[in-house]
Amino acid sequence: MQQAPYQLPVNKLTTLSKNVVLPSTLNLVDLDFKHFGANQEAKQIIERWLKEVRLSQ
Length: 57
Hints:
Helices cover 35% and strands 0% of the residues. The protein is an all-alpha fold. This is Bacterial extracellular solute-binding, family 1 protein.
């Protein structure tokens, strides 16, 4: 699987570079913002990250 950072233009009137990646060609994660953006869920995710990732270093 190829991974790379992508910069997408936000100005509709700009001239696109030949290297620009069209969003429709990207395989993006479908994120449920209503669920994962909720305060309680966000706190749980942060606490888990702190415990499993940050504090284990």
